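A quick aside before the break. I want you to see a complete sequence-to-structure record at least once, exactly as it would be stored in a machine-readable document. Don't worry about memorizing anything.
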Amino acid sequence: MDAASAAKDRVDRALALLERRLLDLKSRAAGTSRVPDDDLFAPEPSTETDRARIHELESAGRDAAETLSRAADAIRAALADQEAR
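That is the input. The structure line, written in tokens, reads:
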């Protein structure tokens, strides 16, 4: 497998993981929160459950950003390696 294919596979795996995490968070939040599960701009959370849900979403967002940043770095490195050849 060449470097570009390996980098693409890493991005695909990262996106699949992100989708699974978000679906899991949404499914858990749907049964416990009065705020719609896609309303990220709701007023201040009124319950501990809402605060925990927001914290989980923010954490998942940070994890996704880090994962995608690493994948982008890997793609850049693979492309630079191919151009150097």
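Two observations worth writing down. Residues 48-84 form the longest helix (37 residues). The mean pLDDT is 77. We'll return to this after the break.
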